[in-house]
Amino acid sequence: MALRRAAMATILIAAIWLIAVKGGGWQQSYPHFTYLSGWGLFGLMLILTAYNGRKKLPFIPLLSSRLWLQVHLYLGLFTGVVFLLHLRWSWPSGWFEAALAFLFSTVTGSGIVGWWLSRALPPRLTTVGGEVPYDRIPEVVRALREDAERVALGAIPAARTTTLSDFYASRLAGFFAAPANFTAHLRGSRRPLNRMLAQIGEVRRFVNSEEGKSLDQLADLVRSKDAVDLQRSLQLVLKGWLFVHIPLTYSLLLASVAHIVVVYAFSGGAR
Fold first, then answer.
1. What is the pLDDT of residues 178-231, one digit of tens each?
2. Considering the domain boundaries, does residue 252 fall inside one?
3. Using CA atoms, how far apart are residues 55 and 139, in angstroms rounded to an integer?
4. In the chain, how many domains are there?
5. 8 Å CB contact between 100 and 259
6. Is 265 inside a domain boundary?
7. 94 and 258 in contact (C-beta within 8 Å)?
8. What is the extent of the structural domain holding 10?
């Protein structure tokens, strides 16, 4: 794995160096080099887009998904350099070309962000136990809320007081009713959880031993709900960036086709 990654990185660096050193000479030597680089760029984008199709057909033995991802990453970086060469290392002045360049930059940027997210977030999913499938999270949250309500209400007959149920209704009901602390989980902050546990600790001074046992159960349920919220937040981001990257990718392809049509319609193409 490491050897393959090193080989791909070496090839990428060599290709970038070749383009950076020889690109200017190619543009001067070949009058129609812009057309050639444009078609090469479009072909590279088609290959990159094929990765999404490969993910939808995992049963077809077209190399491993991990290898496809590595090729996708390195080829994406190389495509960015070819894009700069095609632009002659300067931002285009026409509004359509500028919009196309901005779209390409956005697709590339979202791809880099997605790569970073796919490296940084998955390890955090395992820090609080096993990963919960995203589609099961609402079911797990509902079960935790029902358990919390049962604990809070169940303490009333034994303690003959509503201290615990009142605390649950005022401080914890909203937390158990819906996803919470999205941004805090993305930052890796435990402050909201620690704040709720501190509030539970304050209530402990006003309850008897029986309610104290129920309070311990509520604290455990708060920790479990917080862990599920962490799973939801990270998985939502991992899934959500694809809803940005993939539509932008197909929009870029369509805009590129329009660009090709316009170029050949108004310039006569390469002769």
1. 999 999 999 999 999 999 999 999 988 888 887 888 899 999 999 999 999 999
2. no
3. 27
4. 2
5. yes
6. no
7. no
8. 2-120
Task: Concatenate the DSSP letters of all residues of 133-188 into one string.
Answer: PGGGHHHHHHHHHHHHHHHHHHHHHHHTS-HHHHHIIIIIHHHHHS---HHHHHHT
- My answer on whether 111 and 18 are in the same domain is yes
Output the 3-class SS for 197-255: HHHHHHHHHHCCHHHHHHHHHHHHHHHHHHHHHHHHHHHHHHHHCHHHHHHHHHHHHHH
The rounded distance, in Å, linking the Cα atoms of 46 and 143 is 46
Together in a domain, 68 and 26 = yes
**Distance separating alpha carbons of residues 89 and 133, to the nearest angstrom:** 45
Claim to verify: residue 102 and residue 181 sit in the same structural domain: no
Same domain assignment for residues 53 and 103: yes
Per the CB < 8 A criterion, the answer to whether 227 and 128 are in contact is yes
- Cα–Cα distance list, 136 to 126, 131, 133, 139, 184 (Å): 16, 11, 5, 5, 22
Output the tens digit of pLDDT for each of the chain's 271 residues. Answer: 677 777 777 887 888 888 877 777 777 778 788 888 999 999 999 988 887 766 555 545 566 667 777 888 888 889 998 998 888 888 998 899 999 999 999 999 999 999 899 888 988 888 776 678 889 999 999 999 999 999 988 877 776 778 888 899 999 999 999 999 999 999 999 999 999 999 999 988 888 887 888 899 999 999 999 999 999 999 999 999 989 999 999 999 999 999 999 988 887 544 4
**Is 269 a domain residue?**
no
- Whether 152 and 218 have beta carbons less than 8 Å apart is answered as yes
